[in-house]
Amino acid sequence: MVSGSLTMLSDLPDRQAGFSLSPRIDQVGVEERASRFTKRSIKKESKLNGLKLVLNMIDLTTLEGKDTAGKVKQLCYKAMHPHDSYPGLPTVAAICVYPSMVKVAKKALGDSGIKIASVATAFPGGQAPKDVKIRDTKYAVHEGADEVDMVISRGKFHAGEYNFVFDEIAAIKEACGEARLKVILETGELGTFDKVRRASDIAMHAGADFIKTSTGKIAPAATMPVTLVMLEAIRDFYYKTGRMIGMKPAGGISKSKLALHYLVMVKEVLGEDWLNNHWFRFGASSLANDVLMQIMKEKTGVYQSANYFSVD
Amino acid sequence: MEKAIKKSSLKVSENGLEKPTAAGKPVSTKRLEVMKTYKIYIGGQFPRTESGRYYIPTNAAGKKLANVCLSSRKDFRDAVVAARGAVSGWSGRAAFNRSQILYRMAEMLEGRKAQFIDELIQQDATKAKAEKEVNLSIDRLIYYAGWCDKFQQLFSSVNPVASSHFNFSVPEPTGVVSIIAPQGDLPAGRQGSLLGLVSVIAPVIAGGNTCVVLASETKPLCAVTFAEVLNSSDLPGGVVNILTGKPSELASWFVDHMDVNATIYCEKDSTVQKMIREKSALNLKRISLYDKINWYSEEGQSPYFIMDTQEIKTTWHPVENIAGAGGGY
Fold this sequence. Notes:
The complex is a heterodimer of chains A (312) and B (329).
Chain A: H1 2-10, H2 15-19, H3 27-36, H4 44-56, E1 58-61, H5 69-80, E2 94-97, H6 102-109, E3 115-119, H7 130-143, E4 147-151, H8 154-158, H9 162-176, E5 180-184, H10 193-206, E6 210-212, H11 224-241, E7 246-248, H12 256-269, E8 282-284, H13 287-300
Chain B: E1 54-55, E2 68-69, H1 73-91, H2 95-111, H3 113-122, H4 127-147, H5 151-155, E3 157-159, E4 165-173, E5 176-180, H6 193-206, E6 210-214, H7 221-231, E7 240-243, H8 247-256, E8 262-265, H9 270-279, E9 286-289, H10 303-307, E10 310-318
Parallel strand pairs in B: 5-6, 5-8, 6-7, 8-9
Antiparallel strand pairs in B: 1-2, 3-4, 4-10
């Protein structure tokens, strides 16, 4: 329960000191461990099932200044009908858009069961006053977002103002109401694994339902080692509090094979309870078509061409 | 003044340890042979096959030529990805620049003539025939270098139409071409493992396409060395990708890949030809069967080879029909 963990932390005499006690990360060890997950061989039937699971975990994303209502509608259609020449395919998990596009997406998706995620809190920079961020969040939720993807204040985090970051996340969580909150750490701007771990701990204690690697606007975005650090933070948090937290790597995952490696990692770090789209998501735009091409390759035995798959 | 160090005293022995030698004693002429590893060429890199397999072609005398990569369908898949990625850059270059690069390929081949002649001799050619084949290969590259910015004028047209449109047709590259190169071991010197290879690659890339080529199975040495020529000719990575291996294993993948736009096959095997005709229907590939071409003769080079991997695009451009409007000017 959220409020439970909040109380627990505010009981600490010095919360700020508490977060600087997050475990240190062995960088070489993490990178080595992450590379091992890529050595599993997944073929035939299990590959096909894995690919369908990946498709079902995708947050189909468009976050561009040039987004129009037409683009969002087209993306929603793609979400509901990934590839009609293969009947019975699962849909993606959610559509991820800017707050101004939530209403359009809501109307387009209807009762398809596909969730609407909206970025908020002055995405992607997060450089805005707190009340603006809260209004941004409330607007997205009011428009109909089921999930809110917020960014943390990386500047404050680097300055060591962990309380500020914590309080901000907690305030946004409150503004979300029923909507699930994904907290974007923007790991590409954090610099070290130690900081990624610390930011993960802060986000989870402050009430995040999901922790997410990146906005997709900064390179490097999601990598396997950084995701492993966050998955281990989720595991430790679960052992400590009994509360499950979701994970969303975003940006840079555009090939099916890599997505399957991520699934292996989730299974081996967190277990099968996390292997569904309630607890694990891929933030991606081009991954969906690659997954569809691989599924069609498994079905037809013929290597596919991007020309025969809809551009989303 | 200190005593100058004698060169002979710095000699390194075969096992890498320094061994003092008596002054004046001649340096050993024995050395370890440095053998070339024959690898494949994908996206401007020289990887080994992902399958880790190899085969050993032999010449007529039974001498083992090399351990050559036995490419798998996944190498082909990777090569097609590289080729597809290179299409927009290569077809978008000025035709004149493509011409310059083909000419550069000829220059590089000229500079490494001796190596190619040597490899052809290893693969059963006589010295005279090997020389002739390498010279012809260089000339063929020059031939197609010349055509790069000229075939468009020959094969495009302005068409008479009844409405007020400016109507014109121009050839455009079809995209990614998969090529099973001539095997080069037919009797009577009709083919050549190098000349055949160059003769099928040059027109395809002269026209702005990219390609994946399966080299001769029995005589693959020149193909890998030719990849080194390509690599030093300013040809962008991925425009030509060269695999070694068995056509019997790979032919069907060369034809049914949906991201390949055309296929070239140069052998007489009628079952393979039938398979190519059937599978190419999957995405309406252009197919060219060059099984009767004598690459040594005049019929081995022609701008029509370029046209085999071109599409004709016709444009209707609206224009004002001044006379038809009854005058107004």
